[in-house]
Structure of Phosphate regulon sensor protein PhoR:
Amino acid sequence: MLERLSWKRLAFELVLCCLPALLLGALVGHLPWFLLAAVTGLLIWHFHNLLRLSWWLWVDRSMTPPPGRGSWEPLLYGLHQMQMRNRKRRNELGSLIKRFRSGAESLPDAVVLTTEEGAIFWCNGLAQQLLNLRWPDDNGQNILNLLRYPEFSDYLKLRDFSRPLNLVLNSGRHLEFRVMSYSDRQWLIVARDVTQMHQLEGARRNFFANVSHELRTPLTVLQGYLEMLREGEADGALRDKALLTMEEQTQRMGSLVQQLLTLSRIEASPTLDLSESVDIPDMLRQVEQAARSLGPDHQFTFEVEPALKIRGNSEQLRSAVSNLVYNAINHTPAGSHIAVCWQRTPQGARFSVSDDGPGIAAHHLPRLTERFYRVDKARSRQSGGSGLGLAIVKHALSHHDTRLEVESVPGLGSCFSFQIPVRLIDNRTEG
């Protein structure tokens, strides 16, 4: 309809422009010259409007078009409407892209958008962190030039994305890559950091291997003595020795199972109600009695502030405190001096166990809290140690917003300590 209206207006403008020329030519003569002047004036008017339109489109670029008359009015109005629609579509597309990028930034995975040739045209922040990409500096760069791993290059070239690619970066991170075609000749590359999963899987394998090894030794001893007793080869002193050894091995397995259950129970409770009042001085009195029975050849000094109680979980704190004291007894020779201290400090309340034993080499210190890790494996097995005590201590202390500190000098002794924060000191029972 606008097109028909535009042709009518053009015809009307031509007639309106030529009508005066026809009248003047009929009266005065020189009709061709008057018609030429009229058509020339009409062309100049159209040329003037064309310049105004060009100025608006390329220089002014405002939303409101210049005013138009005659046949230019529907043309300018139509261009204005088209510009409004395009701007609306651009805003919608920009909003959609913004929402997509915002969602991609919130993903726990690295996201990279590339062409099928590998040219990068967007990546999220996690991709910059995990893959060392730089945005927008790497815009247009080929991802194969930035991730120089033969396995990754072959994975993209084969274009068989039915299975993910597991890749170990030079930084030691384990990444799982998935590639999806999401539009014409474009790829969506997603990389997930599975380092912790690999570590947990390795810890699980080591855990079962260690448990199997720890149980295999006493079970082998029990099986050997049972076969000997069944065949009637043991009598008198040998029989008594066999029964005593079997009892010790049974107690060792029972202790291992108990510590495994304790560790499992502590790890299964990531958050605790720390409102319980824990009487650490009374707890240490009981630990002291047990320690003197366990190490009659050791010398003990217990320096305990009698009214210093805290808020926390008594079961877990008892496990932490007793394991540190018993470890000091089990890993120091007879005659060693063990000092246990519980006192208030400006930072809170500090518990420490010091000894003058053989000490621990520096390279062992970072791994002491690992499950089944032993500094002296032969001595630990001889004393019945399972290698779980410090792992229990570590997790119990983490629930009380503190951690185990270890200081040791070979030949001079060791000190195991932790600091309970001020906010967990129970001041209700003081005074």
Q: What stands out?
A: The radius of gyration is 43 Å. Residues 378-384 have pLDDT under 50 and may be disordered.
